[in-house]
Amino acid sequence: MAPHRVVVIGSGFGGLFGTQALKRRKDVEVTLIAKTTHHLFQPLLYQVATGILSEGAISPSTREILSGQKNARVILGTVTDIDLDAKTVTSEVLGRESVTEFDTLLVAAGAGQSYFGNDQFAEYAPGMKSIDDALELRGRIFGAFEWAELATAPAERDRYLTFVVVGAGPTGVEMAGQIAELAHRTLKRDFRAIDTRQARIVLVDAAPQVLPSFGDRLGGAARDRLTRMGVEVELATKVVGVDATGINIEKADGTHARIEAATKVWAAGVQGSELGAMLAEQSDAELDRAGRVKVNPDLTLPGRPDVYVVGDMMALDNLPGVAQVAIQGARYAAKHLKARLDGKSDPAPFSYFDKGSMATISRFSAVASVGKLRFSGFLAWLLWLGIHIVYLIGFKQRVTTLLHWAVSFIGRGRGERTVTAQQILARNIINAMAPEDLPKLPIVEADHVPAPAGDPAATTQEPQAERAS
Fold first, then answer.
1. Residue 458 pLDDT > 90, yes or no?
2. Which of 134, 385, 433, 443 could disulfide-link to 49, CB 3.0 to 4.6 Å?
3. Cβ within 8 Å of residue 284, ≥6 positions away
4. Is residue 46 a part of any domain in this protein?
5. Inter-helix orientation angle 323-341/13-20, to 10°
6. Distance between CA 296 and CA 299 in Å, rounded?
7. What does the alpha-carbon distance between residue 421 and residue 140 come to, in Å, rounded to a whole number?
8. Residues labelled as active-site residues
9. What range defines the domain where residue 455 resides?
């Protein structure tokens, strides 16, 4: 009997944990399709951006993680089409297109940064969703101090020493706090023409409080700590313009102001993957305002019991877009599928168990909300350390992270301060390229021969690209 073919889209928490939950099923064949070769521990991206951790510490190879799972295969590629009737997924990488058939589909493609209809802001204010984003921000942040050292006019120096973080959720708070520590502690002895302690860090959000999902008390504690660190907190303030040299804001009373700043970080808002719209067009599903797919209580797509949607793409019971929702959702989807394959009754509808929320503000200071408990300070910071080490994938990553944390939190150093012009410039240059100018895999005619029957490579299509001369 042919194995049941499961295609998983995405190598984040949802995709990886969903794949691993099917490990012991010999009657299941899993193909994981992802646009990167790594699994990303997204909660620590800001530490890559501020020089605490290397990108490898939070992004182990997906193939290495799944190397011992014999029923799992990994395919590199960006999903460009899903055909629910034909039950196929089309993916592409550097002009090479592949079509993979499925019996069951698990979509865990995550979410992207939302600029609330102002996508032009992205050119000057990178988000925080990928390794590329973090490395670009690292280049921009450390580069700003280098450029300030070269500045000859006070206004130019002040512009380079001003950092604006948009979004007062966990990512924004953590980023603002680390930039403040970088300027006030790590770099204070490294420059001669500037005093990095004079850097201005501004946290901006349209919401009326910091960390709104944590409640008034913890949000207030986080704001107080940020203020003591020298971070300016601008709440009830909308961003209405972003350009190369600054940011325009509108305050609650309707007044407008401008902050001259060379470095802007966008940590506000998320938008569901564009695959959500593709799924909605072919099913009875609807999308919410953030582009997430409204799913059934068993996480299947309305009208399509063979398609599960989990993680940041899923809209159900106002669940937050956090790692635990993705992990628990993926495991539930696998459990639901296994019951169906075994001819058993469906498990009870998905129920999320909230294990709490945490955010760091600075070294030795964090806020935590666990059940009915709300606490902040050093104890919350220790809990944050422990939880993040537990959920990092791979022994090497855990050891490396602990060593880097010791260097950064106990000492003053940051071991990952290497930056290049390519990190800063590559994204916008690539975005400006015409599709026909994007790099493609070279085509060698002799390579394209029919694959043997039953070979997974048989699903690979000939690249739609110009032939190399």
1. no
2. 134
3. 301, 302, 303, 304
4. no
5. 30
6. 5
7. 9
8. 174
9. 435-459
Task: Return the axis-axis angle of helices 395-405 and 378-391, rounded to nearest 10°.
Answer: 150
Three-state SS string across the chain, please? Answer: CCCEEEEEECCCHHHHHHHHCCCCCCCEEEEEEECCCECCCHHHHHHHHCCCCCHHHHCCEHHHHCCCCCCEEEEECEEEEEECCCCEEEEEECCEEEEEECCEEEECCCEEECCCCCHHHHHCCCCCCCHHHHHHHHHHHHHHHHHHHHCCCHHHHHHHCEEEEECCCHHHHHHHHHHHHHHHHHCCCCCCCCCHHHCEEEEECCCCCCCHHHCHHHHHHHHHHHHHCCEEEECCCEEEEEECCEEEEECCCCCEEEEECCEEEECCCEEECCHHHHHHHCCCCCECCCCCEECCCCCEECCEEEEEECHHHEECCCCCCCHHHHHHHHHHHHHHHHHHHCCCCCCCCCCCCCCCEEEEEECCEEEEEECCEEEEEHHHHHHHHHHHHHHCCCHHHHHHHHHHHHHHHHCCCCCCCCCCHHHHHHHHHHHHCCHHHCCCCCCCHHHCCCCCCCCHHHHECCCCCCCCC
Tell me: pLDDT of 291 over 70: yes
- Domain boundary (341, 373, 399) is at 341
Whether the predicted pLDDT of 15 surpasses 90 = yes
Q: Quick one: 364 and 311 in the same domain?
A: no
131, 55 contact by CB (below 8 A) = yes
pLDDT at 413: 85
- As a whole number, mean pLDDT of residues 118-138 equals 96
Query: Which of 330-334, 398-402, 437-441 has maximum average pLDDT?
Result: 330-334
Same structural domain for residues 96 and 139?
no
277 located within any domain: yes
- The percentage of residues in the chain with a pLDDT greater than 70, rounded to a whole number, is 95
**pLDDT of 463 strictly over 50:** no
Q: With the C-alpha atoms ordered 128, 134, 141, 420, is the resulting torsion angle positive or negative?
A: negative
Decide if 16 is inside a domain.
yes
Domain count for the chain: 3
Instruction: Using the predicted structure, report yes or no on whether residue 468 has a pLDDT greater than 50.
Output: no
Give 449's pLDDT tier (boundaries 50, 70, 90): low
Q: Which of 200, 203, 180 is nearest to 266 (CA)?
A: 203
Asked if 92 and 127 sit in the same domain, the reply is no
191 and 303 assigned to the same domain: no
What does residue 34 show for φ and ψ, rounded to 5 degrees?
Answer: -145, 150
Residue 193 makes CB contacts below 8 A (sequence gap 6+) with 148, 149, 150, 151
